[in-house]
Structure formats: structure tokens, C-alpha cells
Design goal:
The complex is a heterotetramer of chains A (about 90), B (about 325), C (about 210) and D (about 525). With about 90 residues, chain A is mainly alpha-helical. Chain A contains three helices and no strands. Chain B has seven helices and twelve strands. The longest helix of chain B has about 35 residues. Chain B has a five-stranded mixed β-sheet, with helices on one face. In chain B, strands 4-10-9-6-7 form a five-stranded mixed β-sheet. The two termini of chain B are about 50 Å apart. Helices cover about 80% and strands about 0% of the residues of chain C. In chain C, α5 runs antiparallel to α6. Chain D is mainly α and about 525 residues long. In chain D, α8 packs parallel to α10, α8 packs antiparallel against α11 and α10 packs antiparallel against α11. The model of chain D has no long low-confidence stretch (mean pLDDT about 90). Classes of the chains: A mainly alpha (about 90), B alpha+beta (about 325), C mainly alpha (about 210), D mainly alpha (about 525). At the B-D interface, α1, α2, β7 and β9 of B face α3, α5, α10, α11 and α12 of D.
């Protein structure tokens, strides 16, 4: 077996993810009001992007794969947008 | 009126139903036009260009995208017009008038129970005066039902867990079908009744014939004491609870800084799940009455609190 | 399928097959996004309706286990990514060890989740089985915990499938045809990372609200 | 029959039930779907007989409710959704794009097994005592009040949903990755475009159905409801989730039909489809816009007025690409050389019936009129014009068109034309009166009804009996042709599509040599006769 070391991007992403996890838990305890939710979800999005780009190798993929990776999210956005519209605007 | 010139036109039993019929006629006319054009072309092409018919089939003139753009644009414009017409009329149905009469409707498997403010109640029937807007405040005891009066071109679902309301007005005295339009179980098709629209005088006579022992508000007052509400909300009670006199229709400041109007829906929610909307300056001590009062009792309590609107706190 | 050929007859080459398999997994992930999406919509609708209750209920979840589990899962994802990289460098033993490590972390996650469920049972937080929530916010809290249990259970089911896949590949590395394993492991890794991403969001929705008040 | 036909690749049960050949799997689906179609049809027959009189005389209310629920569940999930995609699509897609199989053949087989498992569980629910919730499973009736076999039905549909997802996934990947050399997107037959659009919906909408059914099952099992109003849940959330799937599902049920009609119209008028690119993109536009309109099922449910306005607006917009298709089909006939073979009769019937269905859809998209018409027979008539008048007609058209390719036999043209005409008249007689019933206010799912509605109901029931006979006819003459029909040549319609370039029935891996595509589809003109596509 030849010697193998994990590549730098993988290790950096892993450490970054753990750091973001620590950050998000810390921020959750700060009284920011509505900003707490924004911070929690925002950091979640950043973490997901790191996993998708590095671990799932999306940064090496062409437009077709990217479109399909985004399609689920796009339709999720439709669901959340039109689905919550009723509940947000009911009188 | 010019509508009378439309072939087969029947005047509706209410102004709104007439408007809906006009919309229907418009839709029908537009569809007939499209269908006639389409079927004419289909028939024409099928005959003219049938195989074996010797006819000029040389290359077509003109660009195909000209056609595409024109029929796309034409459809879009026609659809937009129909959308605006339909939406406008729809919003009309949700307008409310100041002098409307409130009637409570409780739906349960498989009957409609109607409560008039004077205490008169009826089952699978709704007596109303003509030329008078009636606000139906509807609640369901179990599953989703739908209050449907075809003659008025109106229906509204009655979803459990909330009040839903619908304003109706009838101009022509008569008996009209009342259907449950949302499938609700075994006897769904038996959950029917009639709406009886009467002249004002007949309606007044009908109301007095019913001779209820007490009005809804009085019954609500009795329930108010029976459930112990008066212990806290009553005058001179030791527990500090918001006074209910003069509450109905006012703005209520809530503990989270927002304000709401104390309408039927608010009162209903405040009784069932009091702590979801706490009035500012009060401790959240009221127990929830969810599951403890039926829709029938609940509407009486709401009517009672409404009846206190004119009192001074 | 003709025996001996490294790829099925509908493909033109090994590379054609690999790209197709990966693409298939991405389409599958799009499906999965929507599967969890329905739950997320329910969550936002009720969180909007009962904001206080959701915060109060969230404070009853165990943030220690939640955070530990997030770290475990992130690390496990990292190990799987390494295993894929190692296998492409033909470091079979390393790759196998990394996969086993990732699977063990996955099992650890499930175990901690089990402890968490047991705690919640003791604290009467399981709707339908054992639920009692004092105070005015009981209804909203019950809705929160219904969401919590359905979402985490659905996620745990995905975890179990993933652990099974990782275990299978750990056993088959070096024993089966090389390019096939590499393709299959690559797809399984995508799936595992996706499960990780789902958890990142579940963590933000379940454990973090209401901590500051 | 040619020796190397896929039908000769093995004669054992094993060679069928463990096959990974897309053509054999298509046959498996086809046999299963006939079975489900006649179960669903039997329920419809019983319903129509019962409704011939206003009072209850044939069945009890409980039984009636079970009948229409069974009709809906079977027809939607076990006939319409898999109909064209899983039978014709499975068979034709790889042939049309010059591939040797679908991308994931074993997944394809798994999809059939899941379908059958789901179907069996659902049939169990029906046999054990039935389900009385309607195919829509509205909460809280389905979760807290119904005491029928809701759980089994929910599980059955849940499983069948995964079959849909796998099929959609397989098609998407296949169409992206396995096209023959030279077969660019704009050289694809429009049938492929429409199946691609269908697959996108299958993959992106069906998971929402799955999660919604899970929520229903949990609410029923544990009595804890995410939709239960008693703890502050909202039954309308169920409707939002359900229709997020079920409205796009309507397009799952019509897009493949539109795809079939493209092939038929162009073949029998010997002309390329007018406005190819517009028709192709209209399919994708329908698939995408179809996700934005679901709230039009909820105009009277108490959703917010703004939501109703937005959904109504989007519903009008989604009608535009459908209109584009209808106009293009009509324009295709212009200067064609039209032959009226049975598949063409079905295609012409489709255009007429689909247009009526689509136009009445505008009535329902129109807010104020929908308040009156929703949950009445107007809706019933409208969606039957789309699903039966549209999809089933297109399915029959496609079935006749590709029958020689699938079976290697020719059917009796006279009988086929007679059946097509009978179906058209039976269908209109059955469902047109229902528009009138709905406009007059007869609610749907009514077991007994006021007597003034009887005359239209009798007409409808009479039409249904004609329709029943008409639907049985193909069973006989197509069945007959299987054994006694003349041998079909490779290309009986003289069509340029790749599926016609291989023998009838095709060999196991479809093409002896990998076809190479050099031109756009639908080149029917004489100029191309001499030069076969496969050169």
C-alpha cells in the first residue's frame, strides 16, 4: 500500500465545518432576537455549501450536475414560498 | 338591464349570483369561440388535406414563429382579462356591509345546526330575511364541511379549529338548496337542507313563532357563570383578568407588542388557547378550554361577550 | 447482460457508466430534498404560528447531544470523503479503514440519538406515547415534538441505510472489480454527505432556537 | 416472427420476472395496468348504475363512498400515472433515442416490483373492507374520523410512489446520458421531451406525497396530529402538501398523452410537427409552472385571499403552454397528407376532448366561478375530460400506433376505427352532462341527490354503458391479433423515427448496430425516403 494523506481542501473543510459548528452554538446563546434564527440558518447554509462543494465534489462538476443539484433546492424554495404564503397572509 | 338580452338569461336570486352568471356566460362565450374556431380548422384541414386529395401542398408562406407569438400573446391577453374579471368578483364576495345580521352555523357529521342571535335554532334549514346581508359565522365540530348554496353561487369550507365566515344576501323569497360540498363521511350526501328567504314581515313573524326561552347571549351568560369564567373576568373578582365589557371590536394590545382586533375569531382563540395571545399587562393564568367546550357552547360564549360590547368596563 | 464486460450493454464505456451513475444519484438526492422539504414546510408554518412554544420546546432538547452528534456526523462525512479519495489513489487498506471509521461514527450517532430519545421519554416529551408539557405552550410544543420525532426518525432511517452501505463497501474493497466499487462507493458517499447536510439543517431548526432567552 | 426478437429471448417465467430488458418490463407493466384499469372501471360502473336514480338503491352510503374512493385511488395511482410512462415509455424511450436499454435496467425491474407490492397492499385494503376517505385523504377525516382501512391504502400508495420516483429517475438519466450519437436535444422526438418533463415532476413532486402520507399514517397510528386542530394543527397544511404533489400529478397524467399525440399527428399527416421548439419547451414550461398553481384547489377552503389571487393568476398562466400545443397540432395538419388510421382518430379525439377539458379548466381557475363550481360535478367532468378524454384516449392511440412494434402483429383496422369512434361518443355522452350537473350545483361524491338532477345523471349513466363496451372492444381485437394477426413489417407506418428502424418486435438489445442520427425528427417528406436515418 502506498502512503496516502488526505488532501488539504478536505482537511480544511472539515476543520472549517467544526469551527462553524462551534460558532453557531455560541451565537445561539447570544440574545439577538430575530437575528438568532437568521444566524442559525445562515451558518447552516454555509456548512451545507462546504459539504456540497468539497465533499460532494460539486466544485469539479459541470453545469448539468449543478443544475440537478440545484433543482431540488429550487423546487423546495417554491414549496416553502407558496406554501407559507397562505399562512403568512391569512386574516 | 342589458343582461336580459343574453339568450336563456335568468335573473339571479341575488345581485352577486347574477354577476357570477354573467361571468359564466362570458367564459362560455370565450370558450365557444375558441372551440368553434378550432373545430372549424380541424374539419377544414382534415377534409382539404386528406391523403389522396390532389391539392397544392407547396411550402407554406410566412415564418412559423409569427404564428407562435401571436397565438401565445392572444391567449395570454384573453386569460389575463378573465383572471381580472373573476378575481374582482371574488373579492366582492368577501366585502362586508355594516348592517349585516350575524347567524351562527355549526356543522357536524351530518347536519347543519343554525343559531340565530335571538336564541332561535334550527337544523338543516336557514331562515333569512330578503334584501338584508347576513354574515354566517361557521364552525365545524369534527371534520371539514362546506356550506354551499348553488342558487347564490356561493360556498365556503367549514374547517374545524377556526371560525370562517361568509356573507350572503338573497333578493327573491323562496326555498333554496343547501348542500355540504366537502366530502365528510358516510352520510355526506344527506347533509343537505334548505335556505328559506322570506319577506321582512314574514321573517319577523317566523322569529317570534320560534319563541326561544332565552337569547343566545343569555345562554352564553349562563355558560359564562357555569364554566367559572365570571370568577376572574367578573366585576370585583380577586384575580386580575382583563375585563370583557366593551371589549368586542376594539384593538387589543398583546404582550408581544402587537395588537389585534377583538373579533369573533380572536374571542374564540382566546377562550380555547388563551395563552397564544396574552393581553398586555396580564399574567398568562387562564386555563385553555380546548376540548372542554363544544362549538355550540363556544358560540354562545362569544355572543355573550359580544353583547357586552356596549357596556363600560 | 454479457458476462465479463466491465459495463452493461447500454453504456459505451466505463467512464460513461460512472458519470451516468453519479448523475442518477444527484437526481435521487433532488428527490430526497423534497422528501424532507415537506417536513420543513410544516415546521416553518407552525413555528410562525407558535413562535414562543417552539422556542420553549426547543430548549427542552438536549443541545449537548445534538452538538456532539453534529460534530460526529461532520467528521464521519469527512472520513468518507477521504475514503473516496484514498480509493482513487488505490490505497485500499486506508480506504477500508476510513469507511469502517465512518460507519462506527454513524453507529455512535444512532446510539446517542437513542439515549436522547430515552431521556425525552423520561421527560414526557413523546407525543402520542408519553407527553406532558406544563404551562401555557403545551399545544405548540407538542407540534414541535411531533416534527422533531418524525424528522429525526426519518433521518435516522437514512443513516441506517447509509451505515449499511458503508459497511458493505468496506467489506468489498479489494474483493470486487475495482472500477465498479469505485463508482458505487462514489454514489454511496454522495448519499452519506447528503444525509449529513440534512442533519446540518435539522440541527439548526431543532436545537438552536430559543437558547438565548 | 424474427428469431432474435426480445420475445424469443427466453420462455420461462424466470426470463420474464427477473428480466432487466426494458421491453419485457413494459409488458409486465402493461399486463398489470389492464388488470387495475378494469378494477377501477368496475367501480366506476357501479357508481354510474347507482346514480341512475336519485335515491339509494343499489349500495349503501358506506359502500358508495368506498366505491368512489377505490375508483379514484386505483385509476390515479395504479393506472393513469404509470399508464403511458411505464408501458409505452418503457418500451419506446430507449428505442427512440437509439439506446440498448434504460440507464438502470435493474432499477426499472425494482420499480415494477414496488408497483406491484404497492398495488397488492392497496388491493388488500379494498378487499379487507375498503377505504372511505376519497382519493384525496383530507385530514382530519382520514386521520381521526374514518374507521376504514386507511393505513393499508396509505402504505400501498406510499410504496407505489417510490416506483414512480425510480421510473422518473431512470428516464431523466437515460434521456440525458444514453442518446445515440448525433441525437441532439432538438433532434429528439417530442414524445421524449414530454416524458422528460413528466419525469421531472415524478421525481420532484412524488416525495412530497410520500412525506404527506407518512404524516397521515403517524397521525392515525399514534393519534398525534400534525394536522389536528385540537392541538392547534391546521388541516389546510395537509391540503397544501397534498396538492403540491397532486396538482403536478395531473400533469404527470397528461404530458405523456400530449407526447403521444405529437407522434401520431405528425405521422398521419406526413409532416413534421409545426413549431417543434415551441411544443418542446411548452412541455417543460407546463412541468415547471404546474408546481405553482396547486392552491386553486383551495379557493373556498379559507386560505388567504392573496394566496387565492396568486394561485388563480398562475393557473391562467399555466394554460398558455397547453394552448400553444393545441394550436401547433392544428397547424401541423395544414398542408399535410392526412390518413385516418385508428391512431389518428384517437389523436383527433384527443385534441377535441383535451381542448374542452382545458377550457373548462379556465372556468375553474377563474376565482368567482370556482367558488360555485368547485366540489361539484363540473370539476368531475373537467378532470375526466383531461384524464379520460385526454390521457386514456392518447394511451389507446399510442398503443395502436406502436402495437405492431411491440407485438410484431397487425390488428384489425376496421375494428380499431369502430372502437375509437365508439369511445369518443360514449365518452362525451358520459361526461358532458356532468358539466351541466355541476353548473346547476350538484355536489360531487353524492350518493343520493335531489330529483331535479336525475335527467342528466341518466344520460351520463347511459353514456357510461356505451363507454364500457367501447373500452372492452380493444381487449378482444388486440387480443385476437396477438395470435392471429398478420405479421407486422419493421416500419408499417413508413415513419422515420429510430424505433421503426429496427425489426418488429425488436431484438433483445434493440439495435444490431449503434444508430447514428443525422437530422431532425419527423422527416416524412419524399426527399428523405431514399436515405434511411440509420445510415
Amino acid at each position: 500500500m502506498e502512503r496516502w494523506r488526505p488532501s488539504t481542501p478536505l482537511v480544511a473543510s472539515w476543520l472549517g465545518l467544526l469551527a462553524l459548528l462551534a460558532l453557531t452554538v455560541t451565537l445561539a446563546y447570544q440574545p439577538f432576537g430575530a437575528f438568532n434564527a437568521v444566524a442559525a440558518l445562515g451558518i447552516g447554509v454555509i456548512k451545507a455549501l462546504i459539504v456540497a462543494a468539497v465533499f460532494m465534489e460539486l466544485r469539479h462538476r459541470g453545469p448539468r450536475t449543478l443544475i440537478f443539484a440545484a433543482a431540488g433546492l429550487f423546487w423546495l424554495a417554491i414549496l416553502l414560498w407558496l406554501g407559507s404564503m397562505d399562512f403568512l397572509t391569512r386574516t | 338591464m342589458w343582461r336580459a338580452w343574453i339568450p336563456f338569461w335568468h335573473a339571479g336570486v341575488s345581485p352577486y349570483s347574477g354577476d357570477v352568471d354573467l361571468l359564466f356566460t362570458g367564459l362560455l362565450f370565450a370558450s365557444a369561440l375558441v372551440l368553434a374556431l378550432l373545430f372549424f380548422l380541424l374539419a377544414l384541414f382534415c377534409v382539404r388535406y386528406r391523403a389522396g386529395n390532389h391539392i397544392d401542398r407547396a411550402a407554406r408562406g410566412g415564418k412559423s414563429w409569427h404564428w407562435e407569438v401571436s397565438w401565445t400573446a392572444a391567449s395570454l391577453v384573453a386569460f389575463l382579462g378573465l383572471f381580472i374579471w373573476g378575481a374582482n368578483l371574488f373579492l366582492d364576495a368577501y366585502r362586508s356591509h355594516a348592517d349585516e345580521l350575524s347567524v351562527f352555523v355549526v356543522a357536524k357529521q351530518w347536519m347543519w345546526k343554525v343559531q340565530h342571535p335571538g336564541g332561535q335554532s334550527e337544523i338543516n334549514a336557514l331562515h333569512i330575511p330578503v334584501h338584508h346581508p347576513i354574515r354566517l359565522i361557521m364552525a365545524s365540530q369534527d371534520v371539514i364541511h362546506s356550506f354551499f348554496i348553488p342558487a347564490l353561487r356561493l360556498k365556503h369550507d367549514v374547517v374545524p379549529g377556526r371560525y370562517q365566515d361568509l356573507e350572503i344576501e338573497v333578493d327573491t323569497p323562496g326555498h333554496y338548496h343547501l348542500f355540504c360540498a366537502e366530502y365528510c363521511g358516510t352520510e355526506h350526501s344527506g347533509m343537505t337542507g334548505e335556505v328559506v328567504a322570506m319577506e321582512q314581515a314574514d321573517y319577523a313573524a317566523w322569529l317570534s313563532q320560534q319563541s326561544p326561552s332565552s337569547s343566545l347571549a343569555q345562554e352564553g351568560g349562563a355558560l359564562f357563570r357555569q364554566f367559572g369564567c365570571s370568577g376572574c373576568h367578573g366585576l370585583g373578582s380577586k384575580v386580575r383578568a382583563p375585563p370583557l365589557e366593551g371589549l368586542y371590536g376594539k384593538q387589543v394590545a398583546l404582550s408581544d407588542g402587537t395588537t389585534v382586533v377583538a373579533d369573533d375569531k380572536y374571542l374564540r382563540d382566546a377562550i380555547l388557547l388563551p395563552r397564544s395571545q396574552i393581553a398586555a399587562g396580564y399574567a398568562p393564568v387562564m386555563p385553555p378550554f380546548e376540548g372542554k367546550v363544544s362549538e355550540d357552547q363556544l358560540l354562545r360564549l362569544v355572543v355573550y361577550i359580544k353583547s357586552l360590547a356596549g357596556h363600560q368596563p | 447482460m454479457p458476462d465479463g464486460a466491465p459495463f452493461a450493454p447500454q453504456f459505451a464505456s466505463v467512464q460513461h457508466r460512472d458519470e451516468t451513475a453519479e448523475f442518477g444519484m444527484w437526481v435521487f438526492i433532488a428527490t430526497e430534498v423534497l422528501l424532507f422539504g415537506g417536513l420543513v414546510l410544516s415546521y416553518f408554518v407552525y413555528r410562525h404560528a407558535y413562535p414562543q412554544a417552539f422556542m420553549a420546546a426547543s430548549r427542552h432538547t438536549d443541545i449537548l447531544i445534538g452538538t456532539a452528534n453534529t460534530a460526529i456526523l461532520l467528521t464521519s462525512s469527512f472520513l468518507v470523503a477521504c475514503a473516496v479519495e484514498a480509493l482513487s489513489m488505490r490505497a485500499h487498506t486506508t480506504s477500508r479503514a476510513l469507511l469502517i471509521g465512518a460507519a462506527i461514527l454513524g453507529l455512535l450517532f444512532i446510539t446517542l440519538k437513542g439515549f436522547e430519545y430515552a431521556d425525552e421519554y423520561r421527560e414526557h416529551l413523546i407525543p402520542g406515547i408519553n407527553f406532558a408539557f406544563d404551562g401555557p405552550l403545551a399545544n405548540g410544543a407538542e407540534l414541535f415534538f411531533i416534527f422533531y420525532f418524525i424528522a429525526t426518525a426519518l433521518h435516522a432511517v437514512h443513516m441506517l441505510v447509509g451505515i449499511g452501505l458503508l459497511g458493505t463497501f468496506a467489506a468489498r474493497i479489494g474483493n470486487a472489480e475495482e472500477s465498479r466499487i469505485r463508482t458505487a462507493l462514489h454514489s454511496a458517499a454522495l448519499y452519506w454527505h447528503f444525509v449529513d447536510v440534512v442533519w446540518i439543517f435539522l440541527f439548526a431548526l431543532i436545537y438552536l432556537p430559543g437558547r438565548s432567552s | 416472427m424474427n428469431e432474435d426478437s426480445y420475445l424469443n429471448a427466453g420462455y420461462t417465467l424466470r426470463s420474464w420476472f427477473f428480466t432487466s430488458d426494458h421491453k419485457r418490463i413494459a409488458i409486465l407493466y402493461f399486463a398489470s395496468l389492464i388488470f387495475f384499469f378494469f378494477i377501477g372501471g368496475a367501480a366506476a360502473t357501479a357508481i354510474r348504475i347507482e346514480l341512475a336514480t336519485p335515491q339509494a338503491d343499489l349500495v349503501s352510503s358506506d359502500m358508495y363512498n368506498r366505491l368512489f374512493t377505490m375508483h379514484g385511488i386505483i385509476m390515479v395511482w395504479f393506472f393513469l400515472i404509470p399508464s403511458v410512462p411505464n408501458t409505452l415509455g418503457n418500451f419506446i424511450v430507449p428505442l427512440m433515442i437509439g439506446a440498448r436499454d434504460l440507464a438502470f435496467p435493474r432499477l426499472n425491474l425494482l420499480s415494477w416490483y414496488l408497483f406491484m407490492l404497492g398495488g397488492s397492499v392497496t388491493l388488500f385494503a379494498i378487499a379487507a373492507g375498503g377505504v372511505d376517505t376519497g382519493w384525496t385523504f383530507y385530514a382530519p377525516f382520514s386521520t381521526l374520523y374514518s374507521n376504514s382501512y386507511v393505513m393499508a391504502a396509505v402504505i400501498g400508495i406510499f410504496i407505489a410512489g417510490f416506483s414512480s420516483i425510480l421510473t422518473g429517475l431512470n428516464f431523466i438519466v437515460t434521456i440525458h446520458r444514453l442518446r445515440a450519437p448525433g441525437l441532439t436535444w432538438y433532434r429528439l422526438p417530442l414524445f421524449i421531451w414530454s416524458l422528460y418533463a413528466t419525469s421531472v415532476i415524478l421525481v420532484l413532486a412524488t416525495p412530497i406525497l410520500a412525506i404527506t402520507l407518512i404524516l397521515i399514517a403517524i397521525e392515525r397510528c399514534f393519534g398525534v396530529g400534525i394536522f389536528d386542530p385540537k392541538i392547534g394543527g391546521d388541516p389546510l397544511l395537509f391540503q397544501h402538501l397534498f396538492w403540491f404533489y397532486s396538482h403536478p400529478a395531473v400533469y404527470i397524467m397528461i404530458l405523456p398523452g400530449m407526447g403521444v399525440v405529437n407522434e401520431l399527428i405528425s405521422c398521419f399527416s406526413r409532416k413534421e410537427v409545426f413549431g417543434y421548439k415551441f411544443v418542446a419547451w411548452a412541455s417543460l414550461a407546463i412541468a415547471a409552472l404546474g408546481f405553482l398553481v396547486w392552491g386553486h384547489h383551495m379557493f373556498v377552503s379559507g386560505q388567504s385571499l392573496l394566496a387565492s389571487l396568486v394561485f388563480s393568476f398562475m393557473s391562467f398562466i399555466v394554460a398558455v403552454p397547453s394552448a400553444i400545443k393545441v394550436f401547433n397540432w392544428t397547424a401541423t395538419l395544414h398542408k399535410g397528407s392526412i390518413r385516418f388510421d385508428a391512431p389518428m382518430l384517437y389523436a383527433l379525439a384527443f385534441i377535441g376532448l383535451f381542448t374542452i377539458g382545458g377550457l373548462t379548466g379556465l372556468f375553474l381557475a377563474c376565482l368567482a366561478y370556482d367558488v360555485h363550481a368547485t366540489d361539484t360535478y363540473f370539476v368531475v367532468a373537467h378532470f375526466h375530460y383531461i384524464m379520460v378524454g385526454g390521457m386514456v384516449t392518447a394511451y389507446f392511440g399510442g398503443l395502436h400506433y406502436w402495437w405492431p412494434k411491440i407485438t410484431g402483429r397487425l390488428y384489425s383496422e376496421g375494428w380499431a376505427r369502430a372502437a375509437a369512434i365508439l369511445i369518443f361518443f360514449g365518452f362525451n355522452l358520459t361526461f358532458f352532462p356532468q358539466f351541466i350537473l355541476g353548473a346547476e350545483g350538484m355536489p360531487r361524491r353524492y350518493h343520493v341527490y335531489p330529483p331535479e338532477f336525475q335527467v342528466w345523471n341518466v344520460l351520463s349513466s347511459g353514456g357510461a354503458s356505451i363507454l364500457a363496451v367501447a373500452y372492452l372492444l380493444p381487449l378482444f381485437y388486440l387480443g385476437y391479433s396477438l395470435f392471429f394477426g398478420a405479421r407486422a413489417p419493421a416500419n408499417p407506418w413508413d415513419a422515420p423515427g429510430l424505433e421503426w428502424q429496427t425489426s418488429s418486435p425488436p431484438p433483445e438489445f434493440n439495435f444490431a448496430v449503434q444508430p447514428v442520427v443525422t437530422r431532425a425528427p419527423y422527416q416524412y417528406s419524399e426527399a428523405f425516403k431514399a436515405e434511411p436515418q440509420n445510415a
